[in-house]
Amino acid sequence: MRIDSTVYVPAVSRQAAYLDWLQMFSGICLIIFMYLHALFVASIIFGTGAFNTLADFFEDYYLVQTGGPVIVLIFLVHFILAARKIPFSSGQQKTLWVQSRQLAHRDTWLWVVQVASAMIILLMGSIHMWVVLTDLPITADKSAARIQSGFWLTFFLILLPLVELHVGIGWYRLGVKWGLIKSKARNKVKRFEYYFTGFFILLGLVTLIRFLFVKI
After folding, report:
1. Structural domain tally of the chain?
2. Which of 3, 34, 117, 184: CA 20 to 30 A from 23?
3. Distance separating alpha carbons of residues 136 and 147, to the nearest angstrom
4. What is the model's pTM?
5. How far is 52 from 80, CA to CA, in rounded Å?
6. Which domain holds residue 21?
7. Residue 176's CATH number
């Protein structure tokens, strides 16, 4: 008796490929935005004048009023696209955890960290964007008042490392997925990603501390 051992693997649809491209594009947009955003907010280190000058520039050219809603849209679209591959059920999450431990593969754990951080960023990031965009214009005094209230300091101490980890792992995994980072270069690039992420977390902490000393 002959046993047919052929395994049929479902073909990947063209639609899935397009959605992957769209997810990549939205991810790249958010990565660029987050690094530029971090540098903009860090201008407070050089004083309220530097911060307000940049904020006024964005206001004068309506970059906040137009760019803000666009970023919110990209943020939501990216999450919806990424959610296609996120395990939401308890059974899926248990399977992911067990297999991740069995594989003991660093890149797999990076993906787990990225998925876990995404859930928290979705909630906290939405709150942050809503508060900022409904209280325009952006000024150093307003930002400092939020940080000095206590609640927002704790809020950003949680959000800051999660965002930087998510973004750093994001561009590394994109490079691996699309063949830009070859196998031999993974460890070197990964090490750079750790330092790069660490720099932006440190920059964010210094920025938060500087806001605490702004006289309102």
Report:
1. 1
2. 184
3. 17
4. 0.83
5. 34
6. 14-212
7. 1.20.1300.10
